[in-house]
Design goal:
Elements (H helix, E strand, L loop, with lengths): L1 H16 L34 H21 L11 E11 L4 E11 L2 E12 L6 E8 L28 H7 L10 H6 L3 E6 H4 L12 H4 L11 H17 L4 E11 L1 H12 L5 E5 L17 H7 L22 H6 L5 E7 L7 H10 L1 H6 L17 E2 L2 E6 L7 H14 L6
Bound molecules: beta-D-galactopyranuronic acid (GTR).
């Protein structure tokens, strides 16, 4: 009896303290609240940007500061003094002899703190440095292929449980994400591919900021405007780009950053904060990524902050159940990438991520792309499933579930080739 009564009590208290607990997510377009989307060209302190130059001098820095302060959080600036990259292993016989496969160890404070194992694939026989895709993975590099050569990830990975035999778990996962990373298809088109496990940079649970890169640069709890885990991952992506910059077979000026779901939120934030990423790809990133927060459709700010209190900064919690009070929305995150190329993809059954809200973010970032005379998406309504739209900004809606599939990659490869000068063969 008692546990049930206790549970009921906890539920009532939670419901009183927090009105959205126990409420179902809204999937009804008619119940999307009326909302006002800030004009991306209006400066937070007033006035309106009228040219690309004004955007770069005033609009972009002010928008970046606002989103950083109120949502993702301030991260350390640039490459730290103790940054180190070491080539650990190499084979020129990967993928049946078609590729060179390497593992690098990347550390941020000499030998202190996390050592990130970056897996790199290079197409064999390429003439000169090749363009590359860079993206984090959830459960370790060994998930990309069945090949036992790849070092299994024994550290913290998304979905791990306490008391588990880590090695057995890592081995069981070997090749499990092969469908999400069609390595051969990517390499055949002339690209390199680099990846690392996100948990190596910062663990994906609220650890009191004790592990990962936080304690290297922040003492104790980060201030309300400082970095959460998404910022830490984005910072890690910039450091992996620094590592790629030192690898002569890779053209670090032609790197597309890519991520799925929470890592799609991360690739957008990395692309917004680090202009060296020439193409930015968000796969099903949803709330806190490409989806407009003010629509409160599917996952909401309150829900994401309660489920994942470590992803965003302290200030972002102010907007739980108060999306209307947000002084910006995610179309401005997309606008921060302008005039560089950005591509957003949704999936029809991924309603939690609000496909319509993801499309609208790209659409409403256009005023900033217009300042650079960059073409628009060419449509004002979400295209039919399977159809890719746009040139510098791009979008598609895939039929199916929350996932990354070879169909998504087909669109990404075509988009990246269009937008990088020397990309691919
Ligand atoms: C969900 C979360 C989403 C998305 C997803 C993922 O639980 O609500 O925002 O990030 O996880 O990363 O797989």
């Amino acid at each position: 009896m008692l546990p049930a009564r206790l549970l009921a009590f906890v539920f009532v208290v939670a419901a009183l303290c927090c009105p959205s607990y126990g409420q179902r997510a809204n999937y009804d377009e008619a119940k999307v609240p009326e909302f006002h989307l800030p004009d991306p060209l209006v400066l937070p302190e007033g006035g309106r940007v009228a040219s690309a130059r004004e955007w770069e001098e005033k609009g972009r820095p002010a928008t970046l500061k606002l989103i950083e302060r109120e949502m993702y959080g301030r991260m350390p600036v640039g490459k730290p003094a103790g940054f180190k990259v070491v080539l650990d292993r190499e084979t020129s016989d990967a993928l049946g002899g078609k590729a060179v496969r390497r593992e690098y160890l990347v550390s941020f404070a000499e030998d202190k703190g996390p050592r990130v194992r970056m897996l790199l694939y290079l197409p064999k026989g390429a003439k000169g440095p090749v363009p590359a895709f860079l993206g984090l993975n959830f459960r370790g590099n060994q998930c990309l292929e069945k090949d036992p050569w790849i070092t299994p990830e024994l550290g913290y990975v998304v979905g791990s449980r306490k008391g588990e035999d880590r090695r057995a778990r890592a081995e069981a996962m070997r090749g499990s994400a092969a469908g999400r990373w069609p390595v051969e298809m990517i390499l055949e088109q002339g690209f390199a591919l680099a990846t690392a496990c996100c948990g190596n940079i910062d663990p994906d649970f609220h650890d009191g900021w004790k592990n990962g890169v936080h304690p290297l640069f922040t003492e104790g709890e980060p201030a309300p405007d400082e970095w959460g885990t998404v910022s830490a991952w984005a910072w890690g992506l910039s450091r992996l780009l620094d590592a790629l910059d030192g690898i002569k077979e890779v053209n670090a000026e032609e790197v597309a950053v890519i991520g799925h779901s929470r890592l799609g939120k991360t690739s957008l934030w990395a692309g917004a904060t680090d202009p060296r990423f020439k193409v930015v790809i968000s796969n099903n990133s949803g709330c806190g990524g490409a989806a407009l927060s003010k629509r409160a459709y599917g996952e909401t700010v309150g829900r994401i902050n309660r489920s994942f209190p470590h992803w965003f900064n302290g200030n972002f919690k102010k907007y739980n159940e108060k999306e209307e009070a947000l002084p910006f929305d995610q179309h401005q995150l997309i606008a921060l990438i302008a005039p560089r190329a950005v591509y957003v993809a949704s999936a029809t059954e991924d309603r939690w991520a609000d496909p319509t809200g993801e499309f609208l973010s790209v659409l409403h970032a256009q005023p900033v792309y217009d300042l650079y005379q960059k073409k628009s998406l060419g449509v004002i309504e979400s295209p039919a499933p399977g159809q890719s739209v746009g040139t510098v900004t791009g979008y598609h809606l895939r039929a199916g579930k929350h996932d990354v599939t070879p169909e998504d990659w087909k669109h990404y490869l075509a988009f990246v080739k269009r937008n990088l000068q020397k990309a691919g063969k």
